[in-house]
Amino acid sequence: MSDIAIKVENLGKLYRLGEIGTGTLGQDLSRWWARTRGKEDPFATIGETNDRTKKGGSNYVWSLKDVNFEVKQGEVLGIIGRNGAGKSTLLKILSKVTGPSRGSIKINGRIASLLEVGTGFHPELTGRENVFLNGAILGMNKAEIQSKFDEIVDFSGVERYIDTPVKRYSSGMYVRLAFAVAAFLEPEILIVDEVLAVGDAEFQKKCLGRMKDVSRNDGRTILFVSHSMPALKNICTTGILMETGKVSFSGSADEVIDYYITNFLSFNTDTRIKITDKNREYDLLRQIEYDSIEFVNPVEKNMYSTEDDIAILITLKSKIDREDFRIAFSIFKMDESAVGTFFSQETLSIRKGETKDFVITLKDHQLAKGQYYLDFSVGIGNELIGATEYDVVTKTLFFEIAYKDTSKTQMMVLWHSGWGAVNFHNVDIKAI
């Protein structure tokens, strides 16, 4: 096991639903008698798979069951899956926050965990005191911690507040200092949950760069849970997909992410969508707003060839008279990585109370083969966010770029591993 950092075998975690407690006195006695005879927990045999979408018949569920995997030293393992798949439970067991119900875990090295905001911090202690406390928990002496202290404070960006009790920190400041402690106090294994989503975009980018550095340059092992597919692709070398408490797929990070996108992310095949508040992530004034969006000319349903123009009919409604509004749209891959954004150069006009149609034609797009979706905005000016008069709608229409086989009448879908480039130099917008 010299090159193995973590080895998990037949890991399981059984939980009882409902109120806190182990159950009745009779159930506790049954468990005790089973343990005394070296038998399995009798309630484990009736435990059900942890599927949050279904109502079960038992009060016992397997949050994890028969989980097996290995992580080599220096690997960055991405753990993905839907909410309730068992990702956080797995990390808690590896971090020894809770114990397994069955199975074994072999760990080679010290572990630092960042599972939630303020993990391992005492709220009454200052930032400085918490740095030394966390270092001591990791088994480091005062001199070792002191040698890293300035780097930790500089990376976290909370120098002004380092002697302030952390109970007065914002959630973002908590995360900044907690991650800096975990990353710079040199544990052999770093475990990071989705907690980084709390930080701002600049700090998230900084953290991802740090994780990549400590893995590649220092040979440290990282387990990273995130719903951000671009972040996982950026730093992870291997991956596992969790589904209802089990590992359903494993492989390289790219293989696991592609499998997840293909089999688990919803690809809406509607060619027309009526816009509602469900499509809006921002509560804006919306003086001009989207009513509907529709594909005009797909070769097949939601499908285009690499040579086809893409024409989209948008219907707008207005509460004001405007002679100078603009339309913008962005194209994303299914892993939420942005391919490109277009802003109309010429201003458009609409009358108060009018419902007006516009056709957007994307010519010579140069999109790589794969699946995509569209976000749209409409408003006054050139900034997408920050102006309250904008209407921003997300994940509206989904479409696929496929290879056109001239020897057949049908479209053949060929996946492309590259990001692809999009050409926004030839976009036409016309009122109809």
TrEMBL record:
Keyword Nucleotide-binding: yes
Swiss-Prot/TrEMBL keywords: ATP-binding, Nucleotide-binding, Transport
Every ABC transporter domain range: 47-269
Entry keyword Transport: yes
Matches recorded under CDD domains: ABC_KpsT_Wzt (cd03220)
Signal peptide region: none
Ranges in a coiled coil: none
InterPro entries noted in UniProt: AAA+_ATPase, ABC_transporter-like_ATP-bd, ABC_transpr_TagH-like, Bact_Polysacc_Export_ATP-bd, P-loop_NTPase
Family, as annotated: Belongs to the ABC transporter superfamily.
Protein name as annotated: ABC transporter domain-containing protein
Gene source species: Hymenobacter cavernae
